[in-house]
Design brief:
11 strands; 7% strand; globular; 766 residues
């Protein structure tokens, strides 16, 4: 999910806070994302970015330094925050919203659908499972039983299939550019040389740790607390860690201006739970973490590696003790605490904040937002009480491990072993070309440059018009839903209609492309290339201060398989990458497109009205536009929905957190409801045709289940349950459909079936 700041921050945020699943794909390390995520400054908060697996927003405070960029997008609003594992033309409708939808975007294309005879691969069904007992398995059971997770993946599903397709297309683009000997200084040259520098493992292995020696020397010279604070300020630029992080994002009370958002974090494990709870899994992870840190120090011949590892774990444990629980970290009321810089320095004294921000490149600061104020003072006290040498060890470890992807294979493999094998159960790295494509194609890298070629080659403009029609049909469905709900009064409904009318869709690709010409890229120095891009991004970040936000900026590349809602700009964004089967197929049956991309559109629109997105108005301003009675009625419904999801136990002893995942669950239930309403409206009173013995309603719900086809490794699933605001794929199906009367009728679900809910317990919010 974003404005330039919002968008870009969102990525950085994702960078910071994305679950490990995405780490395998991003140029940013898992730790980077983790830090921000643990700090929960998910920049996708004002936005809704779904990151390859869950519709949501991603913007967080990465270890305080990397986090800074991502915060304007809201991770909770990403369609798939990790669904794919590893992890624009702006279309603004001027049409008045009415309660009538345009005809369904049905097979105007004479070609056959990509999947099955009408858009669903029915060979994946398990007909021996009753739909009322397990609809997820009913739709996907044979695939679940027979598909073997690739050794390089922590999870795999529909999003992954499309991401793999996108990666191969990007690889072809990069290969083509590399074979043309592009002009020096051109974007084509930067893309090809960055990729070639990544693929040259012979040079990387020969250099080993040597690219880090100047930085390691500088860290070793930090002797005083004053120098430490300056090091924290430079953490993002230097690619190391800090317990304080910030980014520049849209001001929630004035989305047209930028504001510094300060957060806390800096932990190396996925979430505070990994430090504070003594499950067998978490205890094993902590033990492996100590060994991993020591091995990382050995690469640099750093003495007393084990003692330093224990000191680092001790520091991070103390940080974790003060980090907010994950359900609080996503509460926009709690995380918006604006104050002047002078007020901030008075309230949170003990740190030379002028020196900290000056080191980060911020020379003038009038105000800022403090995301987690109650955590600030105890962490400031920790900074001032813990030995400086322990903090230096903490920064040194992170400098090495966060740089690992651009160093020798030996060092990179060690990072992978802990962050992917130990944490997610992944036995093998993805092929190097895949990792190279992910690095070069990332939003914070050269992804927008690649995206320009991608859309020229792979996105038919005819698909855009169909998407425009679908978006407007969903808008009409939302309008009708607002009119018909009985728990909301006329005053709040008027505000809701204003917000709906103001929704701005962005489809496929941006109409403004970021200027990357100043980035210096060479063919033979991967580390320098990565550093040059990092410095470019940080300068871009800092230069936003004092400048208006850019509503034309995107928080995802066109080739990204995901979608998001940005609350600060009240926009819904659908990159070209997701506009493919099983989500969208111009040749598929209308019921399938509505159950796929229609529900995705509804999901993102729903984020504008979920428990957090509903706290911003039509202009993106965070304010309460609800009457007290209507908000109370809404919370009765959302509390009941959270309680439903609290009962789900994907792994013995590990439950879905209904409050933490509430925003995404509202998006799923509401999005599918709105898509169903739009589908019915598109029929104009006619009966849907029966195709291969299936009614329109059956095809609609099966399409939704097909979208969330996914398998996980158990370690990965446990990690997601503590870090991912999206429910596991199984419950994005079963937890949703059981709330639909129409699903019960379509599949003859009866009392006694395992998913059956009495009518009075079914939750339909929108």
């Amino acid at each position: 999910m974003l404005d330039k700041s919002t968008l870009y921050r969102g990525l950085l945020y994702a960078w910071w806070s994305l679950p490990s699943c995405l780490s395998e794909y991003k140029s940013i390390t898992f730790l980077d994302l983790l830090v921000a995520y643990s700090s929960k400054q998910i920049r996708y908060t004002p936005v809704s970015l779904d990151n390859n697996d869950d519709f949501g927003s991603f913007k967080m405070s990465l270890s305080a330094n990397k986090l800074s960029i991502a915060l304007s997008i809201s991770i909770a609003n990403l369609l798939t925050a990790c669904g794919t594992e590893e992890n624009q033309i702006v279309v603004t409708s001027s049409t008045e919203v009415t309660a009538t939808a345009q005809p369904a975007a049905v097979n105007t294309n004479s070609s056959a659908p990509e999947l099955g005879s009408f858009g669903i691969d029915m060979s994946h069904q398990d007909i021996n499972t009753q739909p009322g007992d397990d609809f997820f398995r009913y739709a996907n059971g044979l695939w679940l039983d027979t598909f073997e997770l690739p050794a390089s993946r922590s999870n795999y599903g529909s999003f992954t299939v499309l991401s793999d397709r996108s990666d191969q297309r990007v690889r072809n683009i990069i290969d083509d550019l590399a074979n043309t000997e592009p002009a020096q200084g051109s974007v084509e040259q930067k893309v090809s040389d960055y990729y070639l520098s990544y693929m040259n493992t012979e040079v990387l292995n020969e250099r080993g740790i040597s690219p880090l020696l100047p930085g390691l020397s500088a860290l070793s010279e930090i002797d005083t607390r004053e120098e430490l604070i300056q090091g924290f300020g430079r953490a993002f630029i230097d690619n190391t860690a800090t317990p304080f992080g910030f980014y520049v994002g849209a001001d929630r009370s004035d989305p047209d201006r930028h504001q510094v958002v300060l957060s806390v974090g800096g932990i190396g494990l996925p979430d505070r739970d990994y430090y504070l709870f003594d499950t067998d899994q978490f205890q094993n992870v902590r033990s492996e973490y100590l060994s991993h840190i020591a091995r990382v120090f050995d690469f640099a011949n750093i003495e007393n590696a084990q003692a330093k590892a224990e000191a680092i774990l001790g520091l991070e444990t103390k940080i974790a003790e003060h980090l907010w629980p994950r359900d609080q970290r996503r509460n926009r009321d709690l995380t918006y605490n604006p104050m002047s810089f002078s007020e901030f320095k008075t309230e949170f004294s003990g740190i030379d904040w002028d020196a900290y921000f000056l080191a980060a490149g911020v020379t003038e600061l009038e105000d800022l937002n403090v995301s987690f104020p109650s955590a600030m003072t105890p962490i400031i006290e920790l900074v001032n009480s813990a030995p400086v040498e322990d903090w230096v060890a903490y920064m040194t470890y992170r400098y090495i491990v966060d740089s690992a992807p651009v160093l020798s294979e030996e060092i990179d493999n060690e990072r992978f072993h802990f962050y992917s094998t130990i944490l997610s159960g992944v036995p093998e790295q993805r092929e190097r070309w895949e990792r190279g494509v992910a690095r070069i194609g990332a939003l914070n890298s050269l992804g927008l440059a690649v995206g320009q070629v991608y859309v020229q080659r792979h996105f038919p403009e005819s698909a855009k018009q169909q998407m425009v029609e679908l978006v407007e049909n969903l808008r009409a469905a939302v309008a009708q839903s607002i009119d018909e709900i009985d728990w909301m009064g006329p005053q709040t409904k008027e505000e809701a209609h204003m917000k709906l009318q103001s929704f701005r869709p962005k489809i496929a690709y941006p109409d403004e492309w970021k200027d990357l010409s100043s980035i210096e890229i060479t063919r033979n120095d991967l580390f320098a290339n990565a550093q040059n891009i990092r410095e470019f991004n940080w300068e871009d970040e800092i230069n936003r201060l004092g400048q208006p936000t850019n509503r034309e900026e995107w928080g995802m590349t066109p080739q990204t398989v995901n979608a998001y809602y940005n609350s600060s700009f009240n926009e819904i964004v659908f990159p070209a990458g997701i506009l493919q089967p099983p989500f969208f197929d111009p040749s598929a049956d209308a019921a399938v497109n509505y159950g796929g991309i229609g529900a995705v559109i509804g999901h993102e629109m729903g984020h504008g009205f979920d428990d957090q997105g509903s706290k911003s108005d039509h202009a993106g301003i965070q304010r309460n536009w609800w009457t007290d009675e209507d908000r109370a009625n809404f919370e009765v419904l959302t509390t009941a929905l959270a309680e439903q999801y609290d009962q789900f136990e994907p792994v013995p002893g590990y439950f879905v957190d209904g409050n933490f995942t509430l925003g995404e669950n509202i998006g799923d239930v509401g999005g599918l409801s709105l898509a169903y309403r739009a589908y019915q409206m598109s029929l104009n009173g006619d009966e849907a045709p029966v195709i291969d013995g299936l009614s329109g309603d059956q095809r609609f719900f099966l399409a939704w289940a097909q979208v969330w086809q996914r398998k996980y490794r158990q370690d990965e699933l446990i990690q997601r349950l503590t870090t991912d605001p999206h429910s596991p794929a199984e419950y994005r199906v079963n937890g949703v459909v059981r709330n639909f009367d129409e699903w019960y009728e379509a599949f003859d679900v009866q009392p006694g079936d395992e998913l059956y809910l009495p009518p009075g317990e079914r939750i339909r919010i929108w």
